[in-house]
């Protein structure tokens, strides 16, 4: 998750026990309120009124500079919310599709809830003044980037209206779309929130000394005698497309036959806490193209975010504490003929089961200096996860994954993990994993390398490995301390996960100090150091490094940081490199709604990992994104990424090039939009074009018309690959 809006999420969730109150809203008839963003006093008669009277960022529990009021009612089947928000200038908002990251530059309000009351995760459901929606699942994870699940989607209605320098938002949230324990009477922890320019405003006070950000809600709302119907959703889909490639003999694009697929997902609730999803010929297509990553100097495989709908629900439970040991990576299931998913979310425990027959199985082998990747054939995948919830957000879990390859070979993995909240500020996390593998006999990977006494080549060898992580952290308002140890032996492998590095014993120490300044141009200032020492399993020193960082937050939604990474010693392919480092400068800012700018510059020295004769070189990298909100409907953005590594002794480059991606989006309404992505890749001298028309009235009903065109240069540009596609998916609720 981008640091640009991480601070916003943090405010939403740092809620303390101060001012605890139980709210019992009035119950109304089912069709009394029309969600139109227009206040009707008769509709909202008797609603509980709650003031958002705490500024939690940059001020610390002080009176906000603007007034915000929330209202709540409920019926048998829905929760109803209304917000009235004042501003001191023009309302900051644009028409956006669901979960568009640009919404975090808007003025937004919302409802933050912990339906289980045990800190397992939070759901926050928000909207801007145009009714554009954002919903995020926030997990009790150690790493900041692991907390936020933007793929999480709920069905709910929202509408807004602007009246001068203020706005109104109304929301209608079905009980059926929310996870919560069985029972007709519910009591949920909650908070109302608002993001207003630089200010984070809440109905509750915050506690910066409590590191458990998902277990701090103490204001409660009570819903009595609600009706819970067992849900049965059918989601049929159809896709049709045609692909073509350039034929040098005919000097034309030759298209294949039209390829069409039909399938269906069936999602049923056996009880409120137990759901079953079955997908027959599931749609695992990628409509949105992945942003190209510059990997010319990466010796390891790169991961990409998940965008496929089947994995939007329940898979957050599969995340462990340390990403280097991740036993499950959803994109390792590439092309399934069927998939089944069972999820049980009880009051004290959670159970997850996934089974799939994959027709095209990726095969990834971790290594000390590099990873190895190949395309496999059919395999049968099973994933089982159990998690027990303890007090104060603590939890302990078990995980098992298996992959059996058609024709022989398997990869089995078993793990134990936990998060123990020792005090409000101190927590212990751990992962312990054991894998058992038999390689298939196949030619998917061609390499003569070895790990221990085993060959990387797939020749049917049997082996087993271990992975261990333990971390101790203390987080307070000003201080953050972390001590972690990772143990990943050379035979560690996760066939259904994403493990690219092994053969390492890694000790990490991190210390930071952060100060806050209320009502000033400089809002916060943080200093940090990080020390790493790495040995391989021959007890040979691999890395000693020290990183120092200074970061600051300023008025105008602006963040700045400078980091220097220094390696006293490092080894790559048994070659020693000493006393080198690099500097990174980051700037993220959105002073007004119209402009958002993010940049990262790094320079110094680095190893040319992918060169035939690796050596140190002088690096320079630039990544900058400029986004402009032209009007309420139209937005444009440009991503420029440049990278070079120059040889030290002579005027030659290991590599030098750039990638430029230009995006244009026009939102006719919240559900109807048109976009065009254009990308130029200087490394390959290619141009990529992707137009897309999309209609998404809810998260599960979608209609796409689009295409992909790839052009390459040979004296002049010509179309190398071409694709056109149509996709229609429709939610049928029974």
Provide a short characterization of the protein structure:
It is built from one helix and 44 strands. It has 734 residues and is an all-beta fold.
Q: Architecture of the domain at 3-223, CATH level 2?
A: Sandwich
Number of strands: 44
Low-confidence stretches: 1-19
Strand content: over 45%
In DSSP terms, counting alpha (H) and pi (I) runs of 4 or more, how many helices? 1
- Give the integer mean of the pLDDT values: 87
Q: How far do the termini sit from each other?
A: 35 Å
The largest sheet is:
24 strands, antiparallel, barrel
CATH domain fold name of the domain at 3-223 = Immunoglobulin-like
Name the shape in a single word: globular
Q: In the CATH hierarchy, what is the class of the domain at 3-223?
A: Mainly Beta
Helix content: under 10%
Strand-pairing-aware structural class: mainly beta
Q: Please state the CA-atom Rg, rounded to the nearest Å.
A: 26 Å
- Multimeric organization: single chain
